[in-house]
Amino acid sequence: MFAVEKIRADFPLLTQKINDQPLVYLDSAATSQKPQSVIAATELFYTQQNANVHRGRHSLSEQATTAYEKARDKVAQYFNVQSREIVWTKGATEALNLIACGLTEQLDKNSSIVITPLEHHANIVPWQQLALKTGAKLHILPLEADATFNMSACIEFLKQIKPTVLALTHASNALGNITNLSPLLSTVKGFNTITIVDGAQGAMHLQPDLNILDCDFYVFSAHKMLGPTGVGGLYGKYERLNALLPYQTGGEMIETVSLFNSTFRDAPAKFEAGTPNIAGVIGFSAALDYLSELDKNAAYDYEQGLFNYAVNKLNEIDGITIYSNLEHNIGTICFNYKDEHPFDIATLLDGFGVAVRSGHHCTQPLMVHLGINGSVRASFCFYNTHQDIDIFINALHECIALLD
Amino acid sequence: MNKTFKEIAQTLKNAPGWQQKYREIMLLGKLLPSMPDILKTHDALVPGCESKVWLYLDFDLEESCIVLVGDSDTRIVKGLLALILSLYNGLTPTQILSINAFEEFEKLGLISHLSPSRGNGVKAIVERIQTMAAQK
């Protein structure tokens, strides 16, 4: 039995009232709420530990550096990779940009980049830019009309293209669909393809063992994993990682500088120019502690239970269309009610204290693929309850009554 | 249609509870005639809104009063748009500049997220009207 009340007590924000009603937070795909331990660690850092890292020999700086590097070790442990393969960024978006920019010299007009229609804009636009800069050709993996994978067709496609770069999501932010990565990654193994997985949604819910998954890069955002905003990072297989061009220059990443020439340090320092988000990293460290103490399997099963419960309740409502895959999903439901605008539904739900996302979810090509302008998205986390879903469904009934 | 802002404001003030306020606002939207497609140009789209909002502005023949036509693909924003149009339509540029829509909205006691914010586009719509009036 998953002790959700005990978990909820760790998340102070969840006791808030919105419009005089208890908050029902169903927008964890946008950002997760933070446990008290993360808030406390951030406060402790600023009240007692604040100093710059990797500079100065004084005690505070040494302590800050140790804590900062320990966080890197924790991320490495979380994903079962080496610490030197983890680079801090300000989030998954910057991580994807860092990789795409870093590959500029490795691609040319004979290269090919494959992405999917499922991707978040952050996993589309950097690749478009890279294609523009290098002359590489951008290809789109052919998905089914409902944005699921016809695996044999996709494998056939990859065999034909033999991509230089394959970038795809671990779980769709709009739909919650989990990508079955292994057959796709193993298909391109023989082509020396550089593989990038967007883990913004998958990193917390699915906690991949990257040693087993065997992709070249995996990006994540701390704020979707109980951590602070403005921090995240990427894993890169060391050879591949160190082969990237520096993304920004100056500060931390420098080995030597003369007035006309500079040499750079090796990864990960090579990609961490300037003073990093130290407090963010320290807060994220506490989030990783929280996640490591959590029974992840029980949490996952619990989330799946919430998801199925909500799907069944939604399906009882006449006029609801669900776009998410119901078999393999991290706990995100993308839906519409008749031809009502998602903005209206989300605005009315907010009146009942229910927080959902509406719009295109930064996945315009996916919306086009699905033939819709946008949707309502309810996303769950292990701190949500069945009661949250009851309130959400009741509120939705009330909204429908207002709209019909 | 053709309800004055004052009349609308009274109805909204009298509405018991937020659901009823929303109902009234959506009703206002329903009463606002659809904008002819020919006016729904790219230039008429108001940027910075989560929903689609079109606003066509012109001045009448004597160049004295503003003529506003607007539409939105959402019921709530269309209702808010109707509210804004009732506030500004037919006014002279000087009158337009003297009316602070945000203050008027505040007085209506609309719940927090109906207050002018980027998301619902109210701010962008009002700014476009004010800018046009200032250029006259």
UniProtKB/TrEMBL annotation, chain B:
InterPro entries: Fe-S_metab-assoc_dom (IPR003808). It comes from Pseudoalteromonas porphyrae. Belongs to the SufE family. The lineage of its organism: Bacteria, Pseudomonadati, Pseudomonadota, Gammaproteobacteria, Alteromonadales. This is SufE protein. Residues 10-131 form the Fe-S metabolism associated domain. Pfam families: SufE.
